[in-house]
Design brief:
By secondary structure, this protein is mostly beta strands. Helix content is 0%, strand content 53%.
């Protein structure tokens, strides 16, 4: 059974930093894309960042470019999201996801709160 366990969320002041982690287990994730999405109250879930299996290809939403960095450790099947210069509008539940284009697995989410 696939499990994605997120950690690292919390409360931070605007301008601060947080690092989210997501450990995946339950199957082999070779060639899988790993990523992070977020959902704020009253808004649709949006993709924030994605990274290819090799780590050579990344995607960032325009709203986080230059502030967030996604990385992965394939040996640990873990994906990270370093979030710097956080803004109040970054507050949301952040979800880890892993997919191969046909099947996507989701974590349970971790809350990020940014105080102004």
């Amino acid at each position: 059974q696939v499990q994605l366990v997120e950690s690292g969320g919390g409360l931070v002041q605007a301008g601060g930093s947080l690092r989210l982690s997501c450990a995946a287990s339950g199957r082999t994730f070779s060639s899988y894309v790993m990523g992070w999405s977020r959902q704020a109250p009253g808004k649709e879930r949006e993709s924030v960042a994605r990274i290819s299996w090799s780590g050579l290809s990344t995607y960032y939403a325009d709203s986080v470019k230059g502030r967030f960095t996604i990385s992965r450790d394939n040996a640990k099947t873990t994906v990270y999201l370093q979030m710097n210069s956080l803004k109040p509008e970054d507050a949301a539940v952040y979800y880890c996801n892993v997919g191969d284009g046909r099947t996507t697995y989701w974590g349970q989410g971790t809350q990020v709160t940014v105080s102004s």
